TrEMBL record:
Protein name stated in the entry: Aminoglycoside phosphotransferase
InterPro entries from the UniProt entry: AGP_Transferase, Aminoglycoside_PTrfase, Kinase-like_dom_sf
Keywords: Transferase
Domain Aminoglycoside phosphotransferase: 20-205
Molecular function in Gene Ontology: transferase activity
Annotated Gene3D superfamilies: 3.90.1200.10
Length: 248
């Protein structure tokens, strides 16, 4: 039995569990719609994505992508500036692709979510009122009309894999949809603001930096309760609460 690979728990919470067994990732999801989106988005995306090995609801088996994650939230990235620029170029390829047939949340839904989550943060004394108020004002900058593009929707730095200066895979497509291009760029650089210039150099188009900052604040405010309730710690160094404290 010495050659049998160990089972690694990659992530586990009430909505989804992801296990790794050797070079296979097994996702078990309570919401089959998320897996439907993930499979279809990977088929449509013009980027390297995990190979679907098999699917038997509620499980999806995916092959590991080569390379290593571009970084981790809360940890310094060891990837080169060229690798970050390559990630920006990959995002541009995705945004230039034909739109998927389904839509992500619009500004009204996002504004409503922002109201609810800011109230929860203040009512439960999770964060100081002035910090929430300041970041809410910054977050509202992101709530403006945008031209929809094919967005990944959850483009955390740990979801982009590189080998040297080349992007080798992008994972976790369950939030993919028509959305705001600047949200993907903000998610990729959340907690890694020092690499924003590299990403934008690869992306190749001028963007509104105030909107990027708005998405950093909006994401951090609206994700906090979910993170806490699912066993994650947004107060860890370099994570969401530090992003909010650094916002100007």
């Amino acid at each position: 039995m010495a050659d049998v690979p160990e089972i690694e728990i990659v992530v586990a919470h009430r909505e989804r569990t992801t296990l790794r067994v050797g070079d296979v990732f097994l996702k078990v999801d309570s919401d089959q719609a998320r897996l439907d989106v993930e499979v279809e988005a990977m088929a449509l995306a013009p980027l390297p994505t995990p190979e679907v090995l098999w699917r038997e609801p509620p499980a999806l088996a995916l092959a590991a992508v080569p390379g290593t994650a571009l970084g981790r939230l809360g940890e310094p990235s060891t990837a080169s500036s060229a690798a970050w620029a390559a990630a920006g170029a990959a995002v541009r390829v995705l945004h230039d692709a034909p739109l998927p047939p389904w839509h992500g949340p619009g500004t009204d839904e996002l504004a409503s979510r922002l109201d609810v989550e800011c109230e929860w943060l203040v009512t439960n004394d999770v964060l100081p009122t002035d910090l929430v108020t300041r970041n809410r004002r910054i977050a509202e900058t992101a709530l403006r009309p945008w031209t929809p593009v094919f967005t990944h929707g959850d483009l955390q730095v740990s979801h982009v894999f590189v080998d040297g200066d080349e992007v080798t895979g992008v994972i976790d497509w369950s939030e993919a949809a028509r959305g705001d291009a600047l949200f993907d760029l903000a998610m990729l650089t959340l907690g890694h603001q020092e690499h924003l210039d590299d990403v934008l150099a690869g992306y190749g188009t001028d963007v509104d930096l105030d909107v990027i900052r708005g998405w950093w604040s909006l994401r951090s405010l609206t994700a906090a309760r979910w993170l806490v309730e699912h066993g994650f710690d947004p107060s860890s160094p370099g994570c969401e609460f530090d992003v909010l404290r650094a916002a100007r």
